[in-house]
């Protein structure tokens, strides 16, 4: 099964609502596509992987401005309009889980940079958003882990969410 994916490099010069899809080959081999998701619009809600082929939902619409003139340096990645991807308690350690939390542009726990190798790096650390243990099961909570160019569990692609395509 092939997927037409748009990388962050192809996003327009303004904020765009996209699905953040895993680049892990295991999803393609299983005939599904895994997307970053949060079930509810609530502080502390776990950030998980979800099969985005099953439905197109607002909980998979992430708004970002990567690779725009306005996005020099780390920035927020928003969902539900007012929540952002957040590192639980700001713990800089492999395996620290991710959640959503009310957006705060001064909160270092919510600062992300898209890197040219398709990783999403946490602020100025050496940690990236990671598919925990490479498990493609719905509901697997995402974590941060030391960034590695060769780690497929850290590859993320942006694609239009079907519920926003006209």
TrEMBL record:
Pfam families: Ricin_B_lectin (PF00652)
UniProt-listed SMART domains: RICIN
Key words, A-Z: Signal
Species this protein is from: Mycena metata
Signal peptide region: 1-17
Domain of life: Eukaryota
Name of this protein: Ricin B lectin domain-containing protein
Domain Ricin B lectin stretches: 24-159
């Amino acid at each position: 099964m092939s997927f037409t994916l748009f990388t962050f490099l192809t996003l327009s010069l303004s904020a765009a609502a996209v699905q953040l899809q895993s680049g892990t080959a295991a999803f393609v081999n299983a005939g599904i596509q895994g997307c970053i998701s949060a079930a509810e619009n609530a502080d502390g809600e776990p950030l998980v992987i979800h099969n985005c082929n099953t439905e197109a939902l607002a909980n998979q619409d992430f708004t970002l401005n990567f690779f725009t003139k306005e996005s020099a340096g780390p920035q927020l990645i928003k969902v539900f309009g007012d929540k952002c991807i957040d590192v639980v308690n700001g713990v800089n350690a492999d395996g620290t889980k991710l959640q959503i939390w009310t957006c705060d542009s001064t909160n270092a726990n919510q600062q992300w940079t898209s890197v040219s190798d398709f990783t999403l790096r946490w602020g100025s650390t050496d940690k990236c958003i990671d598919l925990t243990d490479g498990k493609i099961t719905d509901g697997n909570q995402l974590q941060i882990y030391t960034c590695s160019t060769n780690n497929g569990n850290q590859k993320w692609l942006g694609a239009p969410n079907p519920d926003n395509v006209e």
